[in-house]
């Protein structure tokens, strides 16, 4: 069993901060580590997007100090905003939204290209049907009443 606040295997999520910049070339892990390591032991730095990062400290007081000291500061020419981040989201496999259609044997068209392909196939099938040779026999009325055309 893991200790309170920890995870099995000894991993501790720590106290997470969200660091964001409104513009610029992005936040680099090495720059963030250099700027934030003076506040305490950093467990993890994540950069899921160019101007967004999450920094996890092992100690709550260290995270609080870093947040107060670094919020509004300039880092690599960018003004950063530092706030408390919520817990790291847990991965949950997404349920396929088309699952009900697959079970019923139906296909859900989701893209314009797929819809266009279906329309094209139907148009080709209709054109092929029109191109089939027709019977050369005369209508049933003409066969039964040969004198109907003569007056």
TrEMBL record:
The keyword Repeat does not apply. Residues 113-132, 142-151 have a biased composition (Basic and acidic residues). The keyword RNA-binding applies. InterPro entries: Nucleotide-bd_a/b_plait_sf, RBD_domain_sf, RNA-bind/splicing_reg, RRM_dom. Residues 79-98, 113-151 are annotated as: Disordered. GO terms for biological process: mRNA processing; RNA splicing. This is RRM domain-containing protein. Residues 15-87 form the RRM domain. One of its GO terms (molecular function) is RNA binding. SMART domains: RRM. The lineage of its organism: Eukaryota, Sar, Alveolata, Dinophyceae, Suessiales.
């Amino acid at each position: 069993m893991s200790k309170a606040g920890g995870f099995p295997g000894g991993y501790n999520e720590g106290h997470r901060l969200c660091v964001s910049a409104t513009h610029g070339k992005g936040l680099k892990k090495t720059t963030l580590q250099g700027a934030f390591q003076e506040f305490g032991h950093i467990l993890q730095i994540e950069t899921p997007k160019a101007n967004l990062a999450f920094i996890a400290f092992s100690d709550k007081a260290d995270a609080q100090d870093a947040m107060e000291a670094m919020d509004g500061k300039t880092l690599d020419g960018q003004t950063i905003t530092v706030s408390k981040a919520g817990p790291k989201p847990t991965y949950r496999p997404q349920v396929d939204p088309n699952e009900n259609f697959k079970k019923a044997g139906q296909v859900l068209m989701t893209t314009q290209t797929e819809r266009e392909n279906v329309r094209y196939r139907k148009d080709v099938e209709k054109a092929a049907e029109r191109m089939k040779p027709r019977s050369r026999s005369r209508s049933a009325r003409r066969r039964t009443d040969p004198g109907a055309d003569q007056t």
